């Protein structure tokens, strides 16, 4: 179900809201404990790189899976045509 606000699905908006809450919580902790900004920047960059790496691996796995299904589908179709 698409909710008109921001033209996003409810699940997508909920996920983004959760991520925003997590980021603001980490910032509040860093300010409260006077953590160095350089450390926080390194942490956020590391998190973004990790999430990006996971996304790239997921796309690769899906691409391989779809490719294998197409190849097996073509092989099965050709073997049925010969019979």
Name some characteristics of this structure.
about 5% strand; single chain; 2 helices; mainly alpha; two-stranded antiparallel ribbon
3D structure, described in words:
The protein has 83 residues and is mainly α. 83% of the residues lie in helices and 5% in strands. The protein contains 2 helices and 2 strands, in the order ββαα. A two-stranded antiparallel sheet has the order 1-2. A hairpin with a 4-residue loop joins strand 1 and strand 2. It starts with a strand and ends with a helix.
Percent strand equals under 5%
Class by helix and strand content?
A: mainly alpha
Estimate the mean pLDDT confidence. Answer: 82
Report the sheet with the most strands, covering strand number, pairing sense and barrel closure: 2 strands, antiparallel
Radius of gyration: 22 Å
Number of strands: 2
Write out the strand line-up for the largest beta sheet, numbering strands in chain order: 1-2
Q: Please give the alpha-carbon distance between the first and last residues.
A: 47 Å
- Helicity range: over 70%
Helices, by number, come to: 2
Runs with pLDDT <50, length 5+? none
Order of helices and strands: EEHH
- Outline: elongated
């Amino acid at each position: 179900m698409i909710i008109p606000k921001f033209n996003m699905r409810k699940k997508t908006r909920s996920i983004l809201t959760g991520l925003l809450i997590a980021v603001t919580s980490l910032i509040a902790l860093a300010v409260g404990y006077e953590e160095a900004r350089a450390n926080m920047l390194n942490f956020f960059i590391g998190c973004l790189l990790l999430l990006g790496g996971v996304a790239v691996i997921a796309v690769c796995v899906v691409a391989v899976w779809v490719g294998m299904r197409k190849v097996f589908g073509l092989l099965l179709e050709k073997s049925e045509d010969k019979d």
